[in-house]
Amino acid sequence: MSNLNQEIERANKLLSQNQFALAFPSALNRDYLLSVPQERRGKLKFSLWVGLAVMAMCLFLDASVGQDQLYRGLAVRTGVTLPLHLAGLLALQRAATLGAQAAAVIIPMTSGLAVTTWLATVATESGELYMLSVGMMIVAINLVVPLRPKEALVLTGAGSGAVAAIELMLSYEPNLFLLIFVLAISFLSFFVSIWSEGERRRLYLLHLLERLRSRQLANANAQLRVLSHRDTLTGLANRRLWDKEFEIAAREAATKGSVLGVLIVDIDRFKSINDHFGHAAGDACLARVGRILEDYLLESAGLVARIGGDELAAFFTDRSEEEIERRASQTRSAISKARLGPGGATITVSIGVAAEIVSEPQMRKELFERADRGLYEAKQAGRDTVSIGRIELQSEVGEPIEDPEVNKG
C-alpha cells in the first residue's frame, strides 16, 4: 500500500509542474514509452499515407513548372519516395521499438524533402514554390506525426536545411523574408509538437492516476472486507464470518445428507490470568492458543473462529465424531505442552465436541448446543479435557432426559 501511495504522490507532483514539455523520471518514462507503441504505430501509418498524398500533390507543382519537370518529378518520386514510403509501411508492421518505428517514418519523409530540394535546384525559377512546399511538409509532419521531441527536431532540422539550401542555390537574389517566414513556421510547428507531446504525457499521467486510485480503493475495500470478517486479536475468523460460513456448511450438509461436526474451545481459568497478570497478558495467551488451533485444525476444518471472549470454535464437514474428538485431543495436548501462559506457565483448555448427519440447515443450532454442553461437561470433569456433547431428549413433563444410546459406554 505504501508503494501505491508513493506512486500516486509522484504522479500528482508531476502534474503540478508547469512545464512546456513534461519530463518524466527514467522509470516512468520507460513505462510511458512501453504504453504507446500500438497507438503510435497507427498514427505513424496514417502519416505515411498522408506523405504519399502530399507526394502526389507535389506532382501538380512539378507540372506547373513544365513538362520536363513533371517527368523528372514523376521519375524520382515514384522511383525513390514511393518505394521508401511503402517500405516504411511494411517496416512499421514489424517495428517493436519506438526507435524502429521512428526510423520507418523519418527515412521516407526525409527522402521526400531531399527529392523536393533536388527538383528545386533544377527549376530555380520556381524555387520559392518548392521552398514553400518543403516548409508546409515540415509543418504537416510536426502537427500530424506523433514523434518524440528528438525525432521531431531531426526532421525539422533536415527540412530547414533543405529550405536554406534551396534559397541559397537560387540564381537570383535570395528572398530572405520568405526564408525567415518558412523557417519560422517550421520551428513554430516543432514547438507545437513538443507541446502536444507534453499534453499526451499529462493525459497518460491522468489515466495512470485513475488506475492507481482505483487500485488503492480496491485494496482498501479488500482490507475492509478482511477486517470485517477477522478477529483483530487472534487473526482468526470472527463471529460474523462464523455464522455465515457455518450456515452455508449446514445447508450443503443437509443437501448431501452428510455429517457436520463442531468443536468449541474455552481457555481454563482465563479470568484468573486477566486478574493476576492483566488483560494484555490474557490477550497474548488467547492469540497463542488461536495460532495453535489454526495449526492443528485449519487443514481439516472448514473454519476456525473466535466466537466471543475466550471461546474459539471450528466446524468440520464429512468428519466423524471420533475423528473430530481425536483432533480435539491432539490440539488440547499441544496447548498444554506449549506453556503459553505468562512467564511460560502452562495453559489448558476444555473442548466440547458434537457431530451428526444433518437433514436440515436448522440442525446446526442443535449441533452447536450439543458441543456447548460437551464443553460444560469438560469443565465439570475437571477441565483440560475433551467431552462429546450428549443428546438431550424431553420427557412428557418437559424435563430433559439423557439419550440411553449415548450412555452405552
TrEMBL record:
SMART domains: GGDEF. The keyword NAD does not apply. It holds the Pfam family GGDEF. PROSITE patterns: GGDEF. Keywords: Membrane, Transmembrane, Transmembrane helix. One of its GO terms (molecular function) is diguanylate cyclase activity. Residues 258-391 form the GGDEF domain. It catalyses: 2 GTP = 3',3'-c-di-GMP + 2 diphosphate. Its EC number is 2.7.7.65. This is diguanylate cyclase. It comes from Pacificimonas flava.
